[in-house]
């Protein structure tokens, strides 16, 4: 079982930056896929960014060049650095660990990001 706790959300003006953190209750093997999803009101949850077991990073087209996903294995923590935020980035952001070996997704509780002037 993996417990994930996000932090770092908040209110930011357009063009601003935020860094989200996701702390895991234990180590996350590199064979797991880790990533960030978001869900805006009235919309489905969507993938924002992820790190694959091979270490590759994937990003949604809407955030490429603005967001960076990373991990610190020593701290069992993943991050999402968000720059040049736009109104349409407003959503609840969730961190995710996909453990393919057991076919299970672990989710954090979510953190709200609001981009507003």
Structure description:
With 117 residues, this protein is mainly beta. Helix content is 0%, strand content 51%. The protein has strands at 4-7, 10-12, 18-24, 33-39, 46-51, 57-59, 67-72, 77-82, 91-99, 104-107, 111-115. The strands form two sheets. Strands 2, 4, 5, 6, 9, 10 and 11 form a seven-stranded mixed sheet that branches. It is globular and about 45 Å long.
Low-confidence regions = none
Number of continuous helical runs: 0
Beta-strand content estimate = over 45%
Structural class: mainly beta
Amino- and carboxy-terminal Cα gap? 40 Å
Q: How much helicity do the residues have?
A: under 10%
> In one word, what is the shape?
globular
**What can be said about the biggest beta sheet?**
7 strands, mixed
- H/E series: EEEEEEEEEEE
Average pLDDT confidence is 95
Count the beta strands.
11
Radius of gyration, CA atoms, in whole angstroms: 14 Å
Task: Record the SSE blueprint.
Elements: E1 4-7, E2 10-12, E3 18-24, E4 33-39, E5 46-51, E6 57-59, E7 67-72, E8 77-82, E9 91-99, E10 104-107, E11 111-115
Parallel strand pairs: 2-11
Antiparallel strand pairs: 1-3, 3-8, 4-5, 4-9, 5-6, 7-8, 9-10, 9-11
Task: List its traits.
mainly beta, single chain, four-stranded antiparallel β-sheet
Tell me briefly what this model is.
This protein is mostly beta strands and 117 residues long. It is 0% helix and 51% strand. Strands 2, 4, 5, 6, 9, 10 and 11 form a seven-stranded mixed β-sheet that branches.
């Amino acid at each position: 079982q993996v417990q994930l706790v996000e932090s770092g959300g908040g209110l930011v003006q357009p063009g601003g930056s935020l860094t989200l953190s996701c702390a895991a209750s234990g180590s996350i093997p590199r064979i797991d896929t880790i990533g960030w999803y978001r869900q805006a009101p009235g919309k489905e949850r969507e993938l924002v960014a992820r790190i694959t077991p091979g270490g590759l990073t994937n990003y949604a087209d809407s955030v490429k060049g603005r967001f960076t996903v990373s991990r610190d294995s020593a701290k069992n923590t993943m991050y999402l650095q968000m720059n040049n935020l736009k109104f349409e980035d407003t959503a609840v952001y969730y961190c995710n660990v996909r453990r393919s070996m057991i076919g299970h997704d672990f989710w954090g509780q979510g953190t709200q990001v609001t981009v507003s002037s």
